[in-house]
Amino acid sequence: xxYQNIIYEERNKIGIITFNRPKALxxxxxxxxxxxxxxxxxxxxxEEISVLILTGAGNKAFVAGADIKELxxxxxMQAKLLSERGHKVLAKLEALPQTVIAAVNGFAxxxxxxxxxxxxxxxxxxxxxxxxxxxxxxxxxxxxxxxRLSRLVGRNMAKELILTGQIVSADEAKKIGCVNRIxxxxxxxxxxxxxxxxxxxxxxxxxxxxxQSINSGSNTDLKSASEIEINHFALTVASKDxxxxxxxxxxxxxxxxxxTLNE
Length: 263
Fold this sequence. Notes:
By secondary structure, the protein is α/β, with parallel strands linked by helices. Helix content is 48%, strand content 17%.
């Protein structure tokens, strides 16, 4: 399928989504959101894909926020529907069975930062900048930013960033726990792919069980979260990949996982 605002490609076990509106700094419009939703549905069904990377076209922006001209014309009901649609798409991204890495190569503002926050973790170029500056427009984040940021960096830090509309550097974003690693702008995608390739060698069953345990457990109490881990642990131990992984350890060789979810 051809997309207007997204490029999707596959490299072995890795899928790469590139937000492709460079003249508009890859700003989100409804066409882009709709296409993102379609691609996520496609990726979720691809057993052969282990890792999905998100990045932006050009060297200036990952996604520099919403299309303000489009946003400014909305009624309250239209804004509610817009927000609901964005929440659904980012919930879909967060729940994707594959590991999702945001490779932030420039501005990640507003909806762009919200997309990055819905990923499993964030790698950033040294030139990247992050922020939820909606307060400067007289509005608030509408795609989950008030919720995901506070869960990631704590309520007080999230309040400071959201209430001031401050834009922070990649270094500052790493200090507060938003960004995992920083690379040069020229090597960001290459280094992100290296991590993706390393993850893609792992057992798909274990990868998905670990992600589901973390995501589900983070939203509940410790006792319930421990039960989630116990159940996922039991399922992975009984898998063929676990048998191969433990035998390889005993035999002092590299494990060769099946690369399939079928047991």
